# Entry
Amino acid sequence: MAVTLQQGWDPSRYAAFRGLRLRPALDLLAQVPDLPGGDVVDLGCGDGAAAGSLRLRFPDRRLLGLDGSAEMLARAAGYDAKVQADIAGWQADSPPALIFSNAVLQWLPDHAALMPRLAGLLPPDGVLAVQMPRNHLAPSHALLRDTAARLFPDLFSTAGYVPPVQDPAFYRGLLAPLGRVTLWETEYLQELAPAAAGHPVRAFTESTAMLPFLDRLTRDEGAVLTAAYDAALAAAYPLLPEGGALFPFRRLFFICQRF
# Structure
C-alpha cells in the first residue's frame, strides 16, 4: 500500500480479517462493466486478497499487482507481474483496461488531483473502480485520534482534522466530466470474533488505522496508547456475550468508465 511507515505493514495481522476486507472488493468487482482491451491492474494489491477473484472475472487478461509495501508483495500471489511502486506517482506503461483499487487510496492525499489522474490513464471505455473506507468519523477512529492527542499532545492533535475520504458528491464532481460514474455506499455490520488480547475493534484497526500513531511512539508509549484505546472502545462497542463485538463499518464505492 502507498502509505510509508517506518515499521512497515504486518501482513499477518492484516490477513487476520481477510474475509471482512475481501467482501467489499467482491462487491466492487461485481459492478465492473465489460472492458476494452488492456491489462487489469490491482492498484494497492496488498497481500493479493483480490487476485483470485480478478483472475476468475478476467481470465484472459494480464493481471498486474502493484503495491508500495515489499512485505505485502512478498505474500501476494496470482499475478502475472508484481511491481513495488509509489501509487501517488505511478504511471502505466500502456493504458490499462481496469484500475481496481480496494481500500488503498484513502492513504493518499489530494484526491482532487489523484482521481482524475488515474482516470486519465485509461483508454476509452476503460474503468477506474475504487473502494475506500469512510469510517473516519466513527468511534473506532475518532477515539483513536482523541486518545492519542490526550496522552501525547506534543505528537498528536485533533485540531483541524479533515477526513481523508470526502462525500460521494465530491468524487462524482471530479469524475463525471471524464466518464460514466456510478457511486454507492454500504455500511457493513461486521461481527468481530473475540480478540486474543484487548478489544476486538482494536484488533481490527491495529493493522491499519493505528499504524501511523504507533509509528511515532516508542514501544512503551504504544502500549500506553493501546491500553487506553481498548478502554475507550469498550464503551462504544460493547462486547457480545461470547466476547466478540459488532462493528459497523461504512465504505464508499465508485466506478468511472471513460468516455
In short: Residues 1-7 have pLDDT under 50 and may be disordered. The domain at 11-258 is CATH 3.40.50.150 (Rossmann fold). The longest strand covers residues 179-192.
